[in-house]
C-alpha cells in the first residue's frame, strides 16, 4: 500500500478494536480472550478488515498493512 493510504471508515468499532490488537502484534487467541470473542468471530473480523483494505488472499500480511497506514492510523 502507498503511504497515502487511509484506514477505511467503513470498519465497525469492534473491527477497529480488533485492528489495534493485530497492529500491536497480538495473536488471534490473545485478542479473542481479551475481547471475549470466539476464534471464529475473530477470523470473521480479520477477514472483513482484509476485504476493506483490499487485501486478497493470505499472502499479504495484515499487520504489516496496518502498520503502513498513514493518516487515520493515529486512532488505531
Low-confidence stretches: 71-75
Dominant shape:
globular
Q: End-to-end span in angstroms?
A: 17 Å
Please describe the biggest sheet, giving its number of strands, its sense, and whether it closes into a barrel.
Answer: none
The domain count comes to 1
Strand content: under 5%
Secondary structure: helix percent: 40-55%
The beta-strand count equals 0
Notes on the protein architecture:
With 76 residues, this protein is an all-alpha fold. The protein has one domain (13-75): Arc Repressor Mutant, subunit A (Orthogonal Bundle), CATH 1.10.10. Helices cover 53% and strands 0% of the residues. Helix 1 crosses helix 3 (39-52) and helix 2 packs across helix 3. The longest helix is centred in the middle third of the chain and has 14 residues, at 39-52. The model is unreliable at 71-75 (pLDDT under 50).
Amino acid at each position: 500500500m502507498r503511504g497515502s493510504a487511509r484506514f477505511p471508515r467503513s470498519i465497525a468499532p469492534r473491527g477497529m478494536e480488533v485492528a489495534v490488537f493485530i497492529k500491536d502484534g497480538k495473536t488471534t487467541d490473545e485478542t479473542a480472550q481479551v475481547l471475549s470473542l470466539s476464534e471464529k468471530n475473530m477470523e470473521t473480523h480479520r477477514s472483513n478488515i482484509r476485504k476493506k483494505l483490499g487485501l486478497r488472499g493470505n499472502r499479504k500480511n495484515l499487520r504489516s498493512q496496518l502498520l503502513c497506514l498513514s493518516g487515520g492510523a493515529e486512532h488505531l
